[in-house]
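The following block was generated as part of the benchmark described in Methods. Ligand: zinc ion.
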Amino acid sequence: MSGTSISVAEATLKEIESAHAVNDDQLWTLHFIFGKNFEGATRIVDQRGIKRITAEPSGRVIFQVTGESRRKDQYVCFPENFCACYSFFYDVVNRGEQLCCKHQIAVRLATSLGACIEVKVSDEELALLLCKI
Ligand SMILES: [Zn+2]
């Protein structure tokens, strides 16, 4: 994964964000960069599997993404740097083969499209969620 691919992906996601819509060219570009992970990410977005959780009163935001497997696991996910799923540790951190996991792409895509489910919790509830990672 080269730096150029990352900046192209960033630029494309910014375009989607300002238009709040995605066109075929952009889908093609993101698919080219992220490959199979992007297919998984679009399925998760289609299933409305991304929760944007805002804690009050601190205003801290985390994302929780529903997995694609039958168990429907929920992963705490930070689009820039962390996901609680197996693939993040195995493919991204250990082997460095992927830029990010499909949940992180799903969060970026859903945020750009305004497709997240908004959830409000207390700071205590957020702390409990983060303990379970
Ligand atoms: Zn993940």
